[in-house]
């Protein structure tokens, strides 16, 4: 079994199953360079208890304009002696791995995980990222990308071979998320009773309240249409810098009886919101992937999804794609989606079978590309 060493920013809930799946194919160690996701405060002790592989941390280094370089990488590589090393994106971490190999300090195959949608690939916003990608991509042995569309882009644009590109979207294990069915149903029933959701259509959003998620823009576009919806709630689960702006907009547009902001949740308390809903929306104007789409499908919700999100590749016939920058498209797709939604009758997990059509097992052969010289 080959040894795989991954340098990764921090542990997030949606990475647990992907890493655990890799640990069954490789002798895996993941080195985290932050002790938590910088814009989230996940319960790390709970997440760590679910891991099935070795981890370590490198937390000392240099920060420059939001980018970091960690001391001790070479020492850790020498200590663990892996066969393959992965950095992330076109970060300083990845650049350092390339430099070490060019200078002859390491001889392992190296690669990077690239969490970009096809939209982001085609419309790189940062000049630094554009030039870093151009200079880096051909110096790596492997890229790990989220979709076949992105794989084709790298092959056509940079002349990479299919064997160099591993397609592996960020997927969670439905059995793990749905495991505590009785507890989830109890929490969901509490939500339904508290907010009087029974017999209504509940359209759910989960995520940070930041400009990239497009929440203010979405509310501005759909406000009048929401007033005409009978027995309907738009639920925004999360928090962030735009919360006050959203609250003011809800008040100004007279949407207090149509929009609910219950706060931020994680773990089972978050998953219970999927049981309390009958549809899901992701209106992002910038979204490399969007793991919440995977979660929504796992809990049986069809998705109204921005075409900018990388997770559009998961939806198929289980949702509708829309352009959040096009008012007419957003309105027409929203109204059609709401019309197709059911009214919330109960919070029974058995009545919401998973709509996910793929899992990590479908991508094992992709990772096998790393096993052969």
Strand segment count: 15
CATH architecture label name of the largest domain: 3-Layer(aba) Sandwich
Total number of distinct structural domains? 2
CATH topology label of the largest domain: Rossmann fold
The first-level CATH class of the largest domain is given as Alpha Beta
- How would the global form be characterised? globular
Tally of helical runs: 15
The largest sheet, given as strand count, sense and whether it forms a barrel, is: 7 strands, parallel
Span from first to last CA? Answer: 14 Å
Beta-strand portion reads 15-25%
**Poorly predicted tracts of residues:** none
| Helical content class | 25-40%
Q: What's the rounded overall pLDDT mean?
A: 95
**Strands in their spatial order, largest beta sheet:** 3-2-1-6-7-8-9
Topology order in helix (H) and strand (E) letters: EHEHEEEHEHEHHEHEHHEHEHEHEHEEHH
Name the CATH superfamily classification of the largest domain: Glycogen Phosphorylase B
Q: What's the alpha carbon Rg, rounded to whole Å?
A: 21 Å
Derived structural class: alpha/beta
């Amino acid at each position: 079994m080959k040894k795989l060493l991954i340098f990764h920013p921090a542990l997030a809930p949606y990475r647990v199953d992907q890493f655990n799946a890799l640990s069954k194919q490789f002798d895996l160690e993941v080195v985290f360079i932050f002790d938590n996701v910088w814009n989230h405060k996940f319960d790390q002790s709970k997440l760590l208890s679910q891991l099935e592989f070795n981890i370590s941390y490198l937390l000392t280094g240099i920060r420059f304009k939001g980018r970091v370089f960690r001391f001790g990488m070479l020492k850790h590589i020498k200590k663990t002696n892996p066969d393959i090393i992965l950095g992330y994106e076109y970060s300083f971490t990845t650049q350092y791995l390339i430099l070490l190999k060019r200078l002859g300090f390491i001889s392992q195959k190296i690669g990077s995980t690239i969490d970009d949608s096809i939209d982001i690939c085609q419309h790189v916003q940062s000049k630094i990222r554009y030039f870093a990608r151009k200079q880096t991509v051909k110096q790596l042995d492997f890229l790990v990308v989220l979709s076949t569309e992105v794989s084709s882009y790298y092959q056509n644009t940079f002349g990479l071979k299919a064997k160099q590109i591993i397609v592996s979207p960020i997927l969670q294990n439905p059995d793990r998320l749905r495991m505590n069915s009785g507890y989830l149903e109890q929490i969901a029933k509490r939500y339904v009773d508290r907010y009087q959701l029974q017999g209504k259509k509940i359209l759910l959003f989960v995520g940070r309240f930041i400009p990239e998620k497009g929440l203010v823009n979405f509310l501005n576009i759909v406000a009048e249409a929401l007033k005409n919806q009978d027995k309907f709630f738009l639920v925004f689960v999360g928090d962030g810098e735009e919360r006050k702006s959203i609250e003011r907009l809800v008040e100004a547009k007279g949407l207090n009886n149509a929009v609910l902001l219950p706060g931020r949740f994680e773990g089972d308390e978050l998953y219970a919101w999927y049981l309390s809903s009958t549809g899901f929306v992701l209106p992002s104007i910038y979204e490399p992937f969007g793991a919440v789409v995977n979660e929504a499908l796992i809990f049986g919700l069809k998705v109204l999804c921005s075409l900018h999100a990388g997770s559009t590749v998961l939806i198929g016939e289980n949702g509708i794609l829309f352009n959040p920058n096009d008012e007419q498209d957003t309105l027409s797709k929203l109204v059609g989606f709401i019309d197709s939604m059911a009214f919330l009758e109960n919070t029974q997990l058995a009545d919401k079978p998973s709509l996910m059509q793929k899992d990590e097992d479908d991508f094992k052969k992709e990772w096998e590309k790393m096993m052969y010289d």
